[in-house]
Design goal:
Shape: flat
Distance between the termini: 92 Å
Radius of gyration: 28 Å
Strand content: 15-25%
Order of helices and strands: HHHEEEHHHEE
Oligomer: single chain
Strand order of the largest sheet: 2-4-5-1-3
Length: about 240
Amino acid sequence: MPSSEKDDLPSYSEALEPPHSIANTSSSTSTSRGLVDNLTLARAHTIRCVIDEHILPLVENEATLGIPQTTIALLPSDIPLPAPEEKNEFSFDASTTFKQVEVIGFNSEEEPKIARLSGPMNNTKFWRLEAVVEELERTLRERLNQSEKLRSPTSPVFERGQLDEMSRSSRRQFFGRFSDSIGRHDRTSSPPKALDHVGQVLVKVRLEEICLRTVNDFGLYDTMSRQCVIVRVDVRC
């Protein structure tokens, strides 16, 4: 065999080795897909648990009392707060004199309900993501508008995606009517009102920095500013 042909042939050790480039590409694609799936499932599971365990009980309780608006402050799990005291027959009932945690200086007439989150997933780093806040708002809106306890008996059950389209359509109609009214009326005329969304449950979720006041076991106050998730629910009936 000519020497040139021998040089083109792979060596014995090279012939036994697998095609690493193809194997590595396939493995990398599979790993990336698995990471995305795990991230999506973990995020959806956490949001679903927060809605079921913290938000829905508060909203439904306010609805049974005839209160249509509910504001909830979700406190991430990594905020240093005093642990709830375990009550026994010898413990001092501090709840009759002061709250362990309360929101002060909140820019609303109604004091928000406080929900203390727990677990490593519910930290500030997780809830600081804009995609997580948007997903919580979208999922909560769909759950509340499908709830038989909150929606009006005459209002339809909205499917996924219909509520977002209705909200965008309402904003377009409102701004269109407002611009038309400017040309037809003078400054003394009042601007048209937006659609009332009767029969719907409106939801707004935002990440806001609020001031928290805590009380330790000795009755001493401490204040801190932390980023929390503020959930506002308005039942239009």
